[in-house]
Amino acid sequence: MSNDAELSTVDPEIFDLIQKEDARQRDKLRLIPSENYAYPAVMEACGSSLNNKYSEGYAGRRYYEGQQNIDGVENLAKERLQQLFGVDHANVQPYSGSPANLAVYFAFCKPGDPVLGMGLPSGGHLTHGWNVSISGKFFDAKQYGVRKDDLLIDFDEVASLAKEHSPKLIWCGATAYPRVIDFAKFAQIAEDVGAILVADISHISGLVAAGVHPSPVGHAGVISSTTHKTFRGPRGGMILCDAAHKKAIDRAVFPGLQGGPHNGTTAGIAIAAKLAMTDEFKTYAQRIVDDSRALAETLMGGGVDVVTGGSDNHLILCDLTSKNVPGKVAAQALDRAGIVCNYNSVPFDTRKPFDPSGIRLGTPAMAARGMGPAEMKQVGQWMTAVIDAPDDDATIERIAGEVTALCQQFPAPGV
Ligand code: DSN
Q1: What is the mean pLDDT of the chain?
Q2: Which of 170, 197, 260, 409 could pair with 220 in a Cys bridge, judged by C-beta atoms 3.0 to 4.6 Å apart?
Q3: Cα separation of 241 and 252, whole Å?
């Protein structure tokens, strides 16, 4: 056997695991809000010869020869993103969301500088200053949260923390917040204290591109994002910014933080940006939101406590305290029924993060299969039945069969 033979020959164990993962993604309902099905064209680009090329630097200014094709790929990715989002500049080299955010810190902060972000327990991200992350350890991070009464972002707290600490950066954007983010309000607070507003739109970049969530452009000087969530691109990251921040961002990404960009990923970002300009994508993004609303309403109809009483975006957070089922128990029972979601902390959770009170759901992958509100109603009824009886194996087995049948009607793109 040659080491250059195909995967099934050189490594049957890995080949088999990929086959099984394909089947899992085909045969189950994937409701983790940060996951999706990347376009088949994106997958093709990621596995192409672009993987074999080094290209440290930026187009026209590289530290390696042989860039006849790579500069074209990177320029297309940048230009399409700039057009799509209406920004002055795009850097498409960050390896993913966390490195993109680290580059933003490196561009504008020194160790120990004050920064302000949303706390993880309220739905923020680790990299927005949470204490176990480098962002919380290397910077003087203060954290805002949500109000106890309506669980919406506490802008009074954002303003008072900003005034007290004069942060260099104010982060907005979330990983478990089901409502519209008011970028204009954040921008006013940032302006009042002379901070740079950074909008991390990783979860909602596809919704923003399609115009079904307000855009931070014109409010946030810097915008970071992953490219594989609602955007349906490859596992990657990007930073969008206005002209004033371009130089600092580019220097921070390379040579500040990273080496050679992952060129297959860059091509995948270019493809996803092109597809995000289509009417088909706008319809898709609207379906994500419609699905999320329909699923939230069905769950609430089944007595599930949906945090903030609904969803404006792709994401739903459920507090299962009143159902007397821990989030992990519910998520594991749902997985046995073929419905995959996260167990997740809810705001003011009294349980530990590894055994929290809630589950987190999202509709990007379901909408990518073409499932609409009618299917979400069915999914919500199945979920409620499982949450109400997580030990009822007969019910779970019946639902698992029905889930498989639904999945067969709506083929998973690209797997
Ligand atoms: N891990 C991502 C999520 O699931 O929201 C954020 O990095």
Answers
A1: 98
A2: 197
A3: 13
